[in-house]
Amino acid sequence: MDPDKESTRGLAQVEGYLLWNAEVEQARRQARRFTDALPWLTTAQRDDVERVYVADRVEICRETLTRIAGRAVELRGEYTARYDRLRARCVAVSVLTVGTVGGACAALALISR
User: Fold this and answer.
1) Are residues 33 and 53 in contact, defined by beta-carbon separation less than 8 angstroms?
2) Cα dist from 79 to 86, 87, 91, whole Å
């Protein structure tokens, strides 16, 4: 495998890991903030509420990321197809233009003899 591609892939994985951990930590902070607003909870209840809150938030994030990743793959396919069609049209126009100019030059050469 190409070392540059491998490095890029590795950096993307590290970035994803760090972003995911930051999201989980944000969910924990929000869970603590939520339970701080409920002073009557016991320590065990507070821990349970925080655990459920974090688990719910992480699941929502996972679903959202999965949906976004799926849409990105769809868009990549759509744009690749559009690019391929545009490239085919450009090549066709270029071939027609070269053929027309070449034919015109040949016709002028024959006429000027």
Assistant:
1) no
2) 10, 12, 18
pLDDT tens, 7-64?
A: 999 999 999 999 999 999 999 999 999 999 999 999 999 999 999 999 999 999 999 9
Q: Burial level of 21, CB count in 10 A (0-12/13-18/19+)?
A: exposed
Residue 21 domain flag? yes
Q: Domain range spanning residue 80?
A: 3-85
Q: Is residue 99 part of a domain?
A: no
Q: Which residues contact 51 (CB under 8 A, 6 or more apart)?
A: 31
For the chain, how many structural domains are there in total? 1
Taking 3-state DSSP, the helix, strand and coil percentages for the chain, each rounded to the nearest 5, stand at 90, 0, 10
Is the separation of the CB atoms in 54 and 28 below 8 Å? Answer: yes
pTM score: 0.67
